[in-house]
Amino acid sequence: MFKIPNITKKNYLFENWIDFKKDIFTSEKLKLMNNNMSGLKVSKVIGCEIDIDIFEQAQKNISLAGLENYVELHNIDFTKLIVNEEPGIILCNPPYGRRIGDEQELIDLYSQLGDFLKQNCSGWTLWLLSGNPKLTRFLKMKASLKIPINNGGIDCRWMKYLIN
Ligand SMILES: C[S@@+](CC[C@H](N)C(=O)[O-])C[C@H]1O[C@@H](n2cnc3c(N)ncnc32)[C@H](O)[C@@H]1O
Questions:
Q1: Is 137 domain-assigned?
Q2: Which of 19, 91, 123, 130 is least crowded, fewest Cβ atoms below 10 Å from its Cβ?
Q3: Does some domain include residue 159?
Q4: Which atom, in ligand 1's list, is nearest to the CA of 48?
């Protein structure tokens, strides 16, 4: 049974985004309010975050949004994740070396991430938010699509990879 997410806030920051479509948001919100979600299949979201403080904050946000039945978060290193055999979508926002972490240290992290994905996630699609092209190169993977985006003043790209 689909549980209605908590959408009781008057305003959300994403309503200021330039591509925000009020009509779509309003009609989707109405569907939720009217509980018109019968037959809706919701995929499970599984995530990992190594830092305990960030993990706890994310858990809090998930529960404030009423999504605890759909989002399963683990306080582990990504290399410890058990990946489902049936392919899905991986969303990843790794450190860029500007706000968190040192660029040199992060080279190992990106290499490890690339190896992990190639060894464990064949057939999956990866969307990675890249804020540092120098680091992204260490994934040793070829992007099939790049979408420019500004993330908190940082020039970023959403990179799409089809993992072999
Ligand atoms: C750019 S931040 C993104 C934070 C958050 N996921 C978001 O999207 O707002 C990168 C996050 O990756 C986490 N991280 C770094 N190394 C990791 C690892 N080996 N396994 C899991 N998470 C890691 C950091 O603790 C940090 O919170």
A1: yes
A2: 19
A3: yes
A4: 21
Ligand 1 in contact with 77 (CB < 6 A)? yes
Nearest CA to ligand 1 atom 4: 93
Kindly report, residue by residue over 7-32, the tens digit of the pLDDT: 777 888 899 988 999 999 999 888 87
Please check whether residue 30 lies inside any domain of the structure: no
**Is 44 within the bounds of a domain?**
no
The residue written with tokens 């040793």 in the block is 140
How many domains does the chain contain in total? 1
Domain that holds residue 98: 83-164
The answer, yes or no, to whether any atom of ligand 1 lies below 6 A from the CB of 154, is: no
Residue 105 in contact with ligand 1 by CB distance below 6 A? no
